[in-house]
Design a protein that fits this description.
Length: about 270
Amino acid sequence: MTEPDTIEPLDLRFSQAELADRRDSIVEFIQTSVDDAGADRAVLGLSGGIDSTTTATLAVEALGADALHALVLPGEVSDPEHMSDAERVATELGVEYDVVEINPFVDLLLDTFGEVEGDYRAVGNARARTRAVINYLVANHEDGLVIGTGNRTEAMVGYFTKFGDGAVDVNPLGNLYKQHVRQLARSLGVAEELVTKTPTAGLWAGQTDEEELGIDYDTLDAILALHVDGPLSATATSRAIEVDEETVERIGDLVRASQHKRTPPATPPRS
């Protein structure tokens, strides 16, 4: 019996010229956003993952290390290795950072609403929203802008907490697929172990992004690029990347179901 052929991921990487242009564009975007807001600096939640590390690196390039305040916000289920990576990144970038344990805040919520304890999704989202509150507390105090770290891949399928990690003023990586973020990170000199580290939102113990999504990032990127953002039907996309059509349709359903996360709160029509 022969082994099945390995399916190569769809190569979405930029050319070197395109990558340089995208980098310059993001740096200018950060500078302009802070200037237009009349802010003095920026605040960013640093998790030790590729997205926040890449964003922090670009923010330092745009604003200077003195104008970025990083917050490392570990919770009960946070991997100590990730938190150590976050502190190391902040130190290497030369930015001010604080480590704030979120457990006391989340525990207060659970003490108040005891029936929620054990609901891993509700509690996980509460952790993300607690981090957002701390980000904005510091940003308001320092007259700063909260910089988000999300990418397009996760935003399109709703893989973020509404009013949690989605609660930011600007999102510099918001138009980049995960594959693009990896390419950009490497070009910025981000450590390879951070580029290839298993992505996790750290909302509950043992959680990983790809396991929760039920699909690997390269395949998800391809479906979004070809079917959601691109012109191909679910059937054509399935053939092009050799993935079953049900998976393609499921991703399309995720995009549609999460639209409310990407738009302002709905209001009734004006009479």
